[in-house]
Specification:
Heat Shock Protein 90; Beta-Lactamase
Length: 422
């Protein structure tokens, strides 16, 4: 049962009932909490003087609360907050049913260490009346009315606000449930869209892998096999030391070409030398005249990039390979910069160049639909649950980011959690 606070003024005012009835009619048809509160603000002002009014609703676990306000705009409605930091935490935790004060700026119930009382002090919200909103006996939130004038509210005011809260509670509870259902539906739709995008991306990558196998087969047939056939023919007719020396050189060239084909198919450099060094070698190989190109590879993870899951590391390496190839072969760049770093518990891969490539040319269509190498980069990013972005800033800039599962990330997240709890 509600706490009861008797008013010293027992006179019956006919206006409160009329305003309460009009509040119900104003709520009809409202489908959003903030607009619903806005629709009844005038009727609340008919019942008591206010400079600020808000409704605060708690989640099912009573850990977080969300505020919806009209009148003065404060930080309370900017984002959800922890219940334990709320100036009305005693109400939200169902410890009491109401709070009434003539000067909240000096009331220790509102002003305590860690309290989100900044709006009270900034806007000088002295007089306050806060009443629990209940549905089926459970506190779902609170209705909060404030005025800059001190000592304005009394027991009669509290009784009126209690009646308003009783009218608003079932409506706002329904709107709150609808809002949560809508958010859940959006999350589900986004998950399905990601799943479909991943399925389509995997299909495209499978096709690309098949094309890669065919390319390797053609390289072996048209290049390596042809070279070996020629070498065998030359060997059968060679007689002089110079001719035999030339055959040895041809064999060495053939071995080098075969190594290049193998390195293209399997990133052995990645396993042997690590992520950063393997990219440096690939950069040098991808550039025709390395002396004329400014090549920068920076590993700011202190080598932690090589401790991640091999599948993820290979995917990032392939994305960087494709971006480097595009910059070196098509963008006419003379500077390529690759950086891998940890930032806010995220692993970030940045590849940038100062070439002439534009988003339109890189994307490959007027509608901006990714094709070719870009599509493969984006698909590889999706397959490791990474975010992929491409932009122009004096060249092409590609950014790939994903949560980093290493010790550094866990330490950083723990530090952030401790800071948030202070």
């Amino acid at each position: 049962m509600r706490q009861e606070l008797k008013s010293e003024n027992n006179a019956v005012d006919p206006n409160p009932l009329n305003s309460l009835l009009r509040i119900s009619s104003h709520l009809a048809g409202q489908v959003e909490i903030r607009s619903a509160l806005r629709s009844v603000k005038a009727e609340i002002e008919n019942l008591l003087p206010i400079d600020h009014v808000d409704v605060c609703l708690v989640d099912d676990e009573v850990i977080w609360h969300t505020s919806y306000e009209v009148g003065i705009k404060t930080r309370w409605s900017l984002s959800r907050s922890l219940v334990k930091h709320s100036p009305i935490r005693s109400i939200l935790l169902s410890e009491i049913d109401y709070m009434l004060t003539g000067n909240a700026m000096e009331d220790p119930r509102y002003i305590f260490e860690g309290s989100l009382a900044e709006p009270i002090l900034k806007h000088k919200l002295r007089s306050r009346v806060n009443v629990a909103m209940k549905v089926l006996g459970r506190t779902i939130g609170a209705l909060n009315c404030s005025s800059r004038q001190p000592d304005l509210y009394d027991a009669n005011t509290l009784q009126r606000v209690q009646h308003i809260a009783d009218v608003l509670a079932p409506y706002f509870y329904s709107l709150w449930a609808i809002e949560k259902a809508q958010k859940a539906a959006i999350v589900e739709a986004e998950a399905k869209a990601r799943e479909e995008g991943l399925r389509q991306g995997a299909l495209e990558l499978t096709k690309a892998l098949e094309q890669e196998r065919q390319r390797i087969g053609m390289d072996l047939h048209d290049q390596t096999l042809a070279d070996l056939t020629r070498i065998l023919r030359d060997f059968e007719t060679a007689e002089t030391p110079d001719e035999k020396a030339e055959i040895v050189g041809s064999i060495q060239d053939c071995i080098q070409d075969l190594r290049h084909i193998i390195d293209t198919a399997v990133p052995s450099l990645l396993e042997m030398f690590g992520f950063a060094h393997a990219l440096r070698i690939h950069l040098e190989r991808a550039v025709t005249d390395a002396e004329m190109m400014d090549l920068i590879v920076s590993d700011e993870t202190d080598g932690q990039i090589d401790a991640i899951d091999p599948t993820t590391r290979i995917a990032l390496f392939r994305i960087a390979q494709e971006a480097i190839n595009n910059a070196a072969r098509h963008a006419k760049a003379d500077r390529i910069c690759v950086t891998v770093k940890l930032e806010n518990a995220m692993l970030m891969l940045h590849i940038s160049d100062n070439g002439i490539g534009s988003l339109k040319s890189v994307l490959g269509s007027k509608k901006g639909k990714a094709t070719g190498g870009l599509a493969h980069m984006r698909t590889r990013a999706r397959l490791i649950a990474a975010d992929f972005r491409i932009s122009n800033a004096g060249g092409t800039r590609i950014e790939v980011s994903l949560p980093f599962p290493g010790p550094a990330a866990r330490d950083l997240l723990s530090a952030e959690d401790e800071e948030a709890g202070e």
